Amino acid sequence: METEKTDLLEAARGLVPADIVCKNAQVFNPFTCSFDTGTLAIKDGIVLGTGDYDGKTVYDFSGLYIIPGLIDAHVHIESLLLTPREYARLVALHGTTTVVADPHEIANVAGAAGIEFMLEGREGAAIDIRYLLPSCVPATPTEAGGAILDAAGLRPFIGREGVLGLAEMMNVPGVLAGDPGIEEKLALSTIRDGHAPLLSGKDLNAYVLAGLQSDHECTTLAEAEEKLERGMYIFIREGSTERNIAALIPLVSPVTVSRCCFATDDCHADLLAESGHIDRCIRRAIECGLSPELAIRMATLSP
Asked: What is the pTM of this model?
């Protein structure tokens, strides 16, 4: 491992040739939200940087663009009725390299075994699949599903490779009431996605105070603005059932873009095959008046 790192450092310093060099490319810099003409160097599949590099293989990228891999901030892979590896193969064709998935649908049927199946499915996948643990299994206390997952049932998955934290907390009344079972789940991780449609005012303050950090349920600009002002990340959703880019894209500016990103949530396989994935979200955002630079930033660095 140390030898590999040393090789990368030497290549980044220009002491040894990179594997691949792309010259004269329009390279997108997500930190500055700008395209710059330059040379991009790659070794062992890792971007070394831009500059005057020599490479074993050199390509002329004149007139071509290079952007970072695209990220879906919130998705339920099961909604596509595909295995994780097959899903990864399809979205990779559209430039997606990372997704953050919530397996709550399969968990509501198969419990911990369903989560295990999804985790195993990331092995050998064409993209980086990360998971947040389903926080509401069953989805409501009155629902009769295939499993019940309390904090004790989720705890063994914390720290597993590919597990980032806790997925959308849909039990808003339980959060606001300080339900002990909900508190136990929230204590499992410092990364906690929210799910709070139409929540506003002091109840929203309490929800954020409880530690929920994001929301993908906004359907109006006013709702998204209020949640952004409270410090939440806004996942602008564009899937098969909910399509919120047109309504919410005015929220995004050079000031707010670091708190805004794209999510497909529930995106069926036919829509993916016909129209694309996060690349479709970028195109739609541009159609709605957002600059290409901000749209790409939302899909790359912001998540």
From this structure: 0.95
